[in-house]
Amino acid sequence: MTTRTASPVGEILRSRHVLRLLSSCLVGRLPTGMAALAIILWVRSHGGDYRLAGLLAALYAVSVAVCGPIMGRLIDRTRQAPFLVGGAVVAGAAFVALSMVDPVTAPATAGFVAVVAGAATPQLEPCLRVLWEDVTSGERQVRAAYALDAATQELIFVCGPVVVLAAVGLAGTSAGLIAAAVVGLAGTLWFASAAPARAWRGSPVARHWAGPLRSGNLVRLFVALVCMGCAVGAFTVGVTARADGLGTPGAAGWLLALNAVGALASGLAYTNVGVARRDDRRLALAMVVMALAYLPLLFADGLVPLAVLAFVCGAPLPVALTSSFALVARIAPPGTLTESHAWMITSFGVGYAAGTGLAGTVVDAIDTPTAFLLATVAAAVSALWTVPRLLPRRAD
User: Fold this and answer.
1) What positions belong to coiled-coil segments (predicted)?
2) Out of 40, 53, 224, 316, which residue is the most buried by the measure of CB atoms under 10 Å away?
3) 3 pLDDT band (50/70/90 cuts)?
4) What pLDDT, on a 0 to 100 scale, did the predictor assign at position 273?
């Protein structure tokens, strides 16, 4: 008689609180996948141009990136629930206020409110990763939870725009912003009211003004994440430009969706892979694979090969992110774990913004393949940054 070993995903989802924490985190984070499209549609409906729309969306994104570590530090020193709920209330109110402002006649007011909405964004993602060790059993389940976390976050950027379009179709362009407020508040309340989030307390350790940034290895990991984000941002612009160059601009959305599906499938499969002895080595390997996956895009011509490569290029990302989550958990200074995960998000976001900006410039100035070359080089540089040992020797 043989026994069947349960899959790690099944084991995790059957654990108490896991399904609620994961699903509520995804719902609460949907506004980050909704905001850019909602702001663009809202500005255009008032007769504003894309420059204004892009500026307001950028202000929101920069505010999220800058203020995330600050909220993470406050949470590390106190509790999760008060800051998560307070942030969701303020961010939701800012989204509603934004929907009532005319961005063309009052751009400064619109910009200020967009900054407030971004600054107050609840740090659900770092809080969830801090809780994984409390709601799972053993290192194997923790790593599988990281992989599931990395895989499912692709749903935010697939479902977020769909929710915006549905709300706008039903009730007009302002409804996209109001939907972001409602969804974000509902998901955050659902997460913050869970027992593990209510019970969590910060660590009473000696505080340092630099927080997690006093760890040189952690800073080096954040630099690698900037390069990783740059690669993904350049890929996004390159795919969009290539689809437009083929005379099918509408296909860009499908190509990016295929990339997200590839990441989701890879992340789910990765939950079955054993715990790495050296997460820094696995991260470096994942980034090498990402660079090699981007390289054929320089020569891809036609939607079919582009679609296949878009799917394949999504596969290394969950492996790289899962390894990064594990590294942060192992090398973050005591009492700085939430802030460390927030810095990780900020690093990736800064890199993504830089990648999209640089890729857009080289597409206009040179050609589309150069954007894919930029993605390849950025992924390779990220791998090089992680080749030197990131883990202390005792971690082996």
Assistant:
1) none
2) 224
3) very low
4) 81
